[in-house]
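I hope you will forgive my troubling you with a question about protein structure. I am sending you one protein, given as its amino acid sequence and as whole-number tokens for its backbone shapes. Thank you for your consideration; the sequence and its tokens are set out here:
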Amino acid sequence: MTEDTVQFEEKRNVSAKVVLIPWDPESAEHVERLYNQRVACGWNSLMVEKWREMQREGKKAINWIVLPEDDPTTDAKIAQHVAQWPDERTPLFDTAVSLRGVPRVPSKSLSFVPIGHISLDSENRDPTLANEREHLYCIATFFISPTLQSHGIGRAAMDTVESMAQEAPLLAKALALNTVAKEHDNDTEKWIAYGRDPPKVC
């Protein structure tokens, strides 16, 4: 993957809103759903087991991207999502007992259908992209259901993660953003196999 370091900028107004709920690396249902979404994404599905350990250690902070219940368009968007991915019709529950290595109390009764996921990482193989001591973090493992792209959901998820990163205890000074590697961009056969158009290079 290629990485672009971005400084914080004034948030753009977007109509879409999202809720982020921590991924639970101890839940078989959460693990299976993340694996399935990575398959739909097209890469890194085999990294899920490694991510479980990184999530436990606080090196990754994977969150589910969830549409808010009070949004009148939520039901229609979820219906659109599960129409293409029927196996994702079953809701998950908020069961993660930690995030970024910090204990949390899950609601357990809160059910949701995630339409994507996003992670804020404190570690990267390239220390210039994520270095917790320097308050540099990396947005990675980012996926939005293909049926719901171009609705502002991705931008809303990014804004939410950026806001989280700026707050204590992280107090991030800058973020690095993982984007699709150029070596994947022109692999037309691969994208056709996944039923998707090749990504545009910006």
Helices lie at 28-41, 48-57, 74-84, 153-166, 182-185, 188-193. The chain has six helices and ten strands. Residues 1-14, 181-202 have pLDDT under 50 and may be disordered.
